UniProtKB/TrEMBL annotation:
Organism the protein comes from: Oldenlandia corymbosa var. corymbosa
GO biological process, one term: Golgi to plasma membrane transport
Keyword Coiled coil found: yes
Protein name: OLC1v1030177C2
Keyword Cell inner membrane: no
Taxonomic lineage from the root: Eukaryota, Viridiplantae, Streptophyta, Embryophyta, Tracheophyta
One Pfam family named in its UniProt record: CCDC93_CC
Keywords: Coiled coil
Residue intervals of the CCDC93 coiled-coil domain: 25-224
Coiled-coil stretches: 61-95
Amino acid sequence: MFSCCAGEFLSSVHDFWFLQDLEKQESEVVSRFVVEHALLQAEVDEFEGMLQNKTNMDIFRDMLDHSLDESKEKLNVLKKELASKQRTILQLHRQLDDIPVPAELLQYELCFSQLYTSIQRKLRQTRKHYDTFNALLEIKEIMLKETSLLNSISSQFQIAISSPVGRTKLVESMEKILNGIQQKLDKLQLVLEPEQKACRALKEKHRKALSDQRQCYSLLQAFEV
C-alpha cells in the first residue's frame, strides 16, 4: 500500500516538473516571437515611411541598387570560383585518365614480360658469341705458339742432334715443353669441369621441361575431349 502511494507520488512529481518545463519553453518561445515581431514591425514601419517620403524613396532605391550591385559582385566572384573549381576538376579528370586501368596494366605487364624474355635471349646469344670468340682466340694463340715451337725445333734439330750435349738439351727442352702443355691441360680441365657440370644441369632441366610440356599437352587433349 505504501509502495503504491509512493509510486503515485513520484509520478505526480514527475508530471509536475514536466509541465513546468513545458511552460518555461512556451514562455521562451513567446518571448522570442514577441521580439522578432517587434523587429519585423519596425522594418515594416521604416519601409512604409520611405514609401511615403520621396527623399526616403530615393534613399531606398539607392540602397536597393547598392544591394543589387553587391549581389552581382558576389555572383561574379562565385562564378570565378566555380570556373576555377571546374578547371581543377578537369585537371583531376585528365590525371585520372592518365592512370592506367587494370586491363592496361596487365597489357603492360605482358609487354614487359615479352621484352624481358627477348632481352634475356639476346643476352644469352651475345654471351655465347663472346665465349666462342674467346675460345677461338685462345686456340689461335695456342696454334701460333705451337707453330713457333715447331719452327724453332725444325731449324735447330739438325744442330742439336749432331752432338751429345745438343741432344741432351733438346730432350730437356722437350720435357719442359711437355710439362708446360700438361700444366695448361690441367688448368683447362679445372675450367672444363664446372662447365660440364652446368651443362649437365641444363640438360636435366631441359629434360624436365620437355616432360612437363608433354604432360601439359596430354592434359589439354584430355580436357578438350
